3-oxoacyl-[acyl-carrier protein] reductase (Streptomyces murinus), 253 residues
Amino acid sequence: MSTTEQRVAVVTGGARGIGAATAVRLAAEGRAVAVIDLDEAACKDTVEKITAAGGKAVAVGADVSDEAQVEAAVARIVAELGAPTILVNNAGVLRDNLLFKMSVSDWDTVLNVHLRGSFLMTKAVQKHMVDAGFGRVVNLSSSSALGNRGQANYSAAKAGLQGFTKTLAIELGKFGITANAVAPGFIATEMTKATADRVGMGFEDFKKAAAGAIPVQRVGEPEDIANAIAFFTGEAAGFVSGQVLYVAGGPLD
Ligand SMILES: NC(=O)c1ccc[n+]([C@@H]2O[C@H](COP(=O)([O-])OP(=O)(O)OC[C@H]3O[C@@H](n4cnc5c(N)ncnc54)[C@H](O)[C@@H]3O)[C@@H](O)[C@H]2O)c1
């Protein structure tokens, strides 16, 4: 790649929350960004924010758990922006319930979006990274990978992504590709707002209660996660691979 060429980044689940903040941040770092989400129209705000700041972005509608849609999305990105060499597997859903009440469909949905989706996206994008001799993969894990009541499906998926990340690092390292996981704690987004709704709490009270248990005494913002992702996707992070970084306002184990 010549120094004037722009690297192409793909951010899944980029319509809102952590994905939107990450897309905006990577564009500010000079990347051309493909913003993928279920509904192409929902990506409009993120794309407009990027282009208004002088950046380059396209909105792409795709369900990351659907193989044909993933392949079509990546082909479109190659045609419209160029070959992607940065991938952030961020798309996610919750279907929380205690194990004895968790339906098979709630299990399958969560495993499909997080794990199958990250597998399909990485498989489709890695060939472009191999061709370029450069790649950066960041997978969104979670503090829930350590176990969390009501999240048997989600914690299994997020722990699974850590194993997936380490294996990518081992297999793809020789092609100049790194793979790392960012594991957020409590971040204020629609996802945590939905959890507050489910437990019957106002979002402000819910955030205040969460902040009290976090060493830095605040909940995280999407930009806190985007900052960590920007580091892992940067040119300078080529010797950092197979790592899991908890970004949670304090230590977790
Ligand atoms: N918010 C938190 O506290 C928190 C904590 C730890 C990990 N995470 C993880 O960070 C990521 C982003 O979370 P968020 O809080 O911004 O969530 P969010 O619900 O605000 O946004 C998730 C986005 O993913 C999209 N999406 C869902 N299924 C999809 C699919 N099949 N294909 C394409 N797009 C799809 C949604 O439409 C949405 O725009 C998720 O992987 C989540 O599990 C979040």
Summary: The longest helix spans residues 104-132. The chain has one domain: 8-185+220-247. Helices lie at 17-28, 44-52, 67-80, 104-132, 152-172, 190-198, 203-212, 222-233.
